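User: Could you check the structure of this?
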Amino acid sequence: MAARLRSRRILLPLLLVVVLAAWFAGARAGSSAATFTQQNLKVSGTPEADGDPVDLDATLYLPEHTPAPAVLLAHGFGGSKASVAGDAQDLAERGYVVLTYSARGMGSSGGLIHLDSPDYEVKDGQRMLDQLAARPQVQTDSSGDPVVGVVGASYGGALALMLAGTDDRVDAIVPMITWNDLRQALFPQSTKTGGTGVFKKQWTASLLGSTLIGSGGSLGTTPSADQLKNLAEGDTQQALCGRLAKDLCQGYVQTATTGESTDDLLDLLGKSSPARVASKITIPSLLVQGQQDSLFPLSEADANAQAIAAAGGDVKLYWDTGGHDAGFDTEPLRPVVADFLDSALSGGSLAGTPGFQVEVASGALASDTTAPTSQLRTSMLAPGVPSRDASGRVRESSAPLTRMKLSGAGQFVLAPPGATPAAITSLPGAGALLSALGSAGSSLNLNALPGESATFQTEPLAQALTVTGSPRVTVGIASSAKEATLFASVVDVDEDGGTTLPSQLVAPIRVTGLGAGSTQDVTIDLPAVVRDIPAGHRLRVVLSTTDQAYAMPQEARLYQVSLAGDGMLTIPQARFTVTDAGSAVPWGGVIGVAGGVALLMLLFLVLHRRKLGGRPDETLTGTPIAIEGLGKAYGDGFRAVRDLSFRVERGQVLGLLGPNGAGKTTTLRMLMGLILPSEGRIRIFGHEVRPGAPVLSRLGSFIEGPGFLPHLSGRDNLSLYWRSTGRTADPYLEVALEIAGLGDDVDRKVRTYSQGMRQRLAIAQAMLGLPDLLVLDEPTNGLDPPQIREMREVLGRYAATGRTVVVSSHLLAEVEQSCSHVVVMAAGRLVAHGRVDELVGDGASVAVEVEPVSKGAEVAKTVAGVDEVRVVDGVLVVRADLQARADLVRELVQAGVAVSRVAPSRGLEETFLALVGEEA
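Assistant: Sure, the predicted C-alpha cells are below.
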C-alpha cells in the first residue's frame, strides 16, 4: 500500500510536468507553423485635393493553395494594418488571400483623414480591389473582377459598406460595430420630430479631437514634421488640424466650441455615411454590432440591415456583448466571420442559416453584463428586417411586442444653469466601470440625479421577458424655453429597488417649437438593448435633463414631462433558440496556465477515480446509445434537461424532436462529450461518455455547418479534414462518398457546389472512417424538396449498413419519412419514444370511410365515447378511444351504413402537437 501511495505522489507531478511541457512545445510549434507568406506593398492612393501624391502602406498574405478567394481587411479609427494582423493571419491560414493596409492619414500611410469620404478613402479601397484583381493568386469572377469579401470594424466597417455600395466587384461584406449615418451617430435624435439631434461631444472629441496633434504616422501628443512645417509657413489652421482634413477639422472645431452643428460639417458627415449607398448593396452581408456601444449603438446596424434587405441582399445580424464602451475583440468572432465568408464567397446559399444571433450574458436570466458566461441565441429572422422566402418574395419580419402599462403623474424637472451637475451614463471606453458604479446594490447612482429626472414605472413582471431591441414610449413635454433637450432610458428595477441601466445607454431627444405653455407629444425610441428581465422586476422609464457625454443648453430651463397616448411601454422581443454557452472572459497569460493546471489536476483525479469511465457495461456493448436519468443544470439554476432516459438500437434512424428550448442541442452536446451532465449518464456501446473518451472515435457528427475551403475540391477538403484529426486509420473515403452520392462532383471546387451538394459533402465528412454512430443536427437546413429527398436516401443507405443515425430536426414531415424511430422532448423532458408508425397509430383520431357519409356522421354523434365528429374531404373523422371505435363500427353497420375502411387520421405533426401542445 505504501509503495502504491508513493507511486501516486510521483505520478501526478510527473504527469503535470509532461503535460505542461507538451503544452509549451505545442504553443511554440503552432506559432511557427505558418501556412502563408507575406509581401509588403506600397500602393498609390488617391491624391489630395492639392495634388499631393499619397502612398498607402499595405501587406499581402498569400495562402499555401492558390488561386483562392480574397479578403480586403480594413482597420479601426486611429489604428493601422498592424491592428488587424492577427485577423489577417487567421484568414490566410484558412486559405484566403488577404490584403490589409493602413488607411490614409494613419499608420505609415500618407495623406489626410477624410473620415471614409467617397472621394478619398472609398477610392483608396477601389485601388486595393484593383491590386487584388491583378494578382494571379486571386480567384476571379471575370477579368478584373476578383472574388472578394471586405471585412472591417468601426472605421473599417463603414468602409466595407461604402465600398460595397460603390463598387459591384465586392461579393460579400462583414462590417462590425460601425455606423449607418454619422449625423445620427454623432448628433443622435431619438424621435421622429425631425431636426438635428444632441451633439455627442465626448465621443466626437475622443475620435476627431485625438487627430488634432499627430506624431509621425500615429495619433499622439507630439506635433509631426508636417505640422511644424505648416506652423512655420503661417498655416496655423492646418498645423492645429494635424492629419485631419481641413474642412472636417474646421467643422469639428466650430461645433465643439459652440455645441451646435454646422451645415458644412453635417454635409461632410452625410457623405461619409453608408446610409447614402446602403440601398445599392445586394450582396451577402454579416452585420456585427456591439451591445455595449454608446458611440454606434445597435440601431445603426439595424438601419443598415433594413436598407440592404430591402434592396434584395441576404442580411445576417450578430449582436456581440462587447462594443466601443467595453472593448471589442475580433478574435472570438473569427470562426463566425470565416464560416460566413466560406458560404458567401463560394457561391453557396445562406438559406437556412440564422438571420439573427445574439450573445446574452450569464445564461438564462442575465442580471448584469460582467458575468463570466454567455449564451448564443439564434433566430431565423431578424426583428424589423425584411427577408425573402424561397421564391424571392419579401416577407416582413417583426419582433413580437409586449405592451406594459406605465404609471406616474406629470413631473417638473430642472435643467440646471451651466448644465451642472450632470448625470454620467457613458464615457468613451469606460462603460463597464460606470455600469459597476451605478448598478444594483450600489449606493452611487450617476445615471439620474434628483430633481433632474422624471420617472414612470410598470407593475412587477408576472413572468420573465427578454428585451430585444428598442422599446418605445410616448410622453408629453412642455418647456420654459422654446425647446427641450432630454435623455431617455429604460432601467431594470429589482425587488429590492436596486437599479441597472442596461448597457449604460440613453436616447437623446431635442424637441423644438415649444414655449408659451404649449405641450408636445413625442414618441421616443428608447435605447436598443438585449436584456433578460426576471419575473418580479419592474421597468422604469427615466427622462433626465442632463448627461455629461453630450452638449447641453447652458441656460436654466424647467420642463414638465407626463405620460401621453395610451401610457404604454412597448417592448420588442424575439423568439430564440439557445445554441451555445461558453466563457466570455478573456482568460490569458498566467491565469490561463494556472486554470489549465488546475483543470488537468481535477481531470486526472476524476479519471483515476473513475478508471477512465469505468469498465463498460457488458450488457450494452451492442447498444449504440443508452441514456439513463440524464440531467443538465447551469449555474444560474436553469435546467436544460431533466430525467431523460431512452435507448437507440443498431440500424435505427432516430428523429430527435421538440420545440425550441426543449433541450435537444444540450442532449446532443452531452452525447458527444462536449459538456458534462449534472446527473445521470450516457453510454455509447456500453462505455460511459466522458470528454476525450476513446469510444467517441466511433461517433461521427455534423452539428454546425463546416467551414469548407471554397477554392479546394470536395475530395481535398475531406482529405485535409481527416489529416487534421491526426488519425491514421483508413478514412474509407470512397465508401463515404458513394453513400453521400456526390459522384464526379467531389473533384470540383467547393465554391461551385449548390447548397445541397455542400450539405452532402458535410455528411460525407461526418461519415469518414464509417463511424458506427452518426449524429446530425438539422442536416436538411436550407435544402429544397429534391435535395431533402436525396438527403433522406443518404441517411437510409447509411443505416442500411447496420449503423445508427440520430437526426435532430424541426421538419416533422421529413422526420416521419426519414426516421424509423422518434424521441419527443419538451421542457427538457422525454414525452414520447418509439417507432414512428406506432406513435402515429396511437392517435385518438381515426378516419372512417363510410357511405353515406351524412348518415354516418349522425350515427357517430350518438355513440358514447366519441368526443368529436367531422367530415373532411368526404371522410368521416372522429376522436374516440379504442373501445368507442369498436362501438362506432358496430353501430354504423347496424344502422345500414357501409364501412369500407378505418385508419388513423393523423400524421407525426398532429401527434407532435398533441404531445407538446399547440403553443410550443
